[in-house]
Amino acid sequence: MSTFDVKIRDGLARTGMLRIGDVEIHTPAVVEARELFPSLADRPFTNLPLSAPQSDADIYYVPGTDPVSFHPLAVCPAVSGDVVMIPGWRPVLGDARRYVEYLAAIFAGTPPDAARYAPACALPSNAAMLIATGFDLFDYTAVDLASIQGKFCMPEGEFDASYLEKGVCGCEGCRTHDLFLHNRLALEREVAVVKTWIAAGQMRELMEQRCRLHAEQVALLRRLDRSPLSAAALPAVRSSRFLANSAESMTRAEIAFFAERVINRFVPSRSDVCVLLPCAARKPYSMSKTHQKFQKVIEGRAHEVIITSPLGVVPRELELVYPAGHYDVPVTGYWDREESAILTGYVAAYLAKHRYERVICHLEGGAKAVAIAAAEAAGVELEVTCTDDRPSSPDSLRALNAALKDCRKRRNDPVRGTLAWQFGELVDTKGWMIKGRYPNQKIYEKKTQMFSIDASTGLLRPTMEGWKFLSGYRVRISDGFVPQGDILAPGVASADPVIREGDEVLVEGPGYLATGKAAMGAEEMIRSSRGVAVRVRKTKKS
Fold first, then answer.
1. What pLDDT shows up at residue 279?
2. What is the number of other CB atoms lying within 10 angstroms of the CB of residue 62?
3. Where does the PUA domain lie (predicted)?
4. What's the CA gap between 364 and 278, in Å, rounded?
5. 484 within 8 A of 477, measured Cβ to Cβ
6. Which residues contact 262 (CB under 8 A, 6 or more apart)?
7. Across 87-107, average pLDDT
């Protein structure tokens, strides 16, 4: 009998606690499979290939127990807490298309709170990618085979055994000239490294780093970015840094998610005049000296929109929201053709959706070229105020001021825009006040607090009074379920399908109301039998 509790999620990757009898394993982990699963020695047809046809699956598929085998063409009887073994995964490692297809089948056909075991697969060079795609448990078979073949294993790849003598590693195996021990320790060390990156919320950054020396992993990463599976596992926001240091950073699911909401949910504070501004190294932008100059000149006479790579469009109201307030990129002043094409699409879609009477382009370099191309695609005429390619120069600032000479000052409403992006609803915020020092602020209607800003993510946290203005993002608990602190998944009866990990939610039940943050997405809440679904911040008897 086994149990499995997920502790931390980072996309498809996760850490957890697996208990099998008296054995506790902090996952992801490498184990001695023969000791942990002795029944495998006597189980027939354990290695039915994933590519086997339906006729073979009907005859030869033996699910077994401890662990339960999986095959994409058979019904897997695994339940919450089981270990699900995916035999025959090694041949899939070099085929990105099949990898993603089978991975989708695994996620659809097994409980989200079951541990996933990939036998005979893990090497130091692929462990990060295996964990990043949702696997929790591994064995030593692949590294032991590499040792027999005289291969020295590292995260960078597999090399000749002579590397044992080159001083590239100082582990006990290298010190004692034991290739088997080195390879096992290298795998354990890589898994431990991955755990720390998951805990930091930066598994993607590690993936982009590790995949660089393996063409098949780059191909897999690119396919994953374009798959619904990756998008579905995406949290609404994070508080960790977002490092965009490679070409693959441009296709991260977070970027498309943020941009889609900016285009289709967000509503600008005003629609008469828009100023397109360059980004800044400091986040949020308004804390930078350059943007403080821009704001001093604009003085509320236009809607401020930042054009940036890799996000495309960041309205001033959303500058604190992840990933706008968290990303960092290498600054070269040059945007390559593929990057420019992606960003032009985002900017054009924004300008086509949100029709301003005037659009002022106060940009330089690649951002300016993108804005010009996007405006042409959207049928928008640009007014260029930066002619010396120095947006913060005195001449450029004077030109911007002159362009806004006859424009009326208006109060910017960041709360309305953020609520639209976050909850997809337009709220009448007339008369509301923002108090406190940015970004640690609270929003009031007269003397009643409605929301507070979560400075770590940029989201608005509704109070019970604030929830009265919103209709979605509800979690319903089952009749008879009495919460004691956080809301556990077994007690969830239903959840708004749009809820993602990190979203602010309202929990409702007979005589019970609570506001808090979703710890898992809506589908996982419904399908899981273990784990925290909502981390409660405040409760109220209804």
1. 93
2. 12
3. 473-541
4. 7
5. no
6. 312, 313, 314, 315, 318, 350, 421
7. 95
pLDDT attached to residue 540: 83
Q: For the whole model, what pTM was predicted?
A: 0.92
- Mean pLDDT along residues 289-301: 95
Q: Buried b vs exposed e over 11-45: b needs ≥16 C-beta within 10 Å?
A: bbbbbbebebeeeebebbbbbebeebbeebeeeee
Residue 425, helix vs strand vs coil: coil
Q: Per residue in 374-397, pLDDT tens? A: 999 999 999 999 988 899 999 999
- Residue 542: per-residue pLDDT: 63
Distance of CA 286 to the CA centre of its chain: 25
Query: d(Cα 303, Cα 294) in Å, to the nearest integer?
Result: 12
Please give the Cα distance from 303 to 163 (Å, whole number): 60
Would you state the structure tokens that stand for residue 174, as one six-digit string? 């290298």
Question: Integer distance in angstroms from the first to the last C-alpha of the chain?
Answer: 40
User: How far is the C-alpha of 395 from the C-alpha of 387, rounded, in Å?
Assistant: 9
DSSP code of residue 512: E
Q: Tell me what percent of the residues of the chain surpass a pLDDT of 70.
A: 100
* Number of Cα atoms under 13 Å in the Cβ half of residue 321: 30
Which has the closest alpha carbon to 14: 162, 233, 339, 165? 233
d(CA 485, CA 241): 30
Is residue 441 within 8 Å of 434, Cβ to Cβ?
yes
Report the pLDDT averaged over residues 277-298: 94
Average pLDDT over all residues of the chain: 94
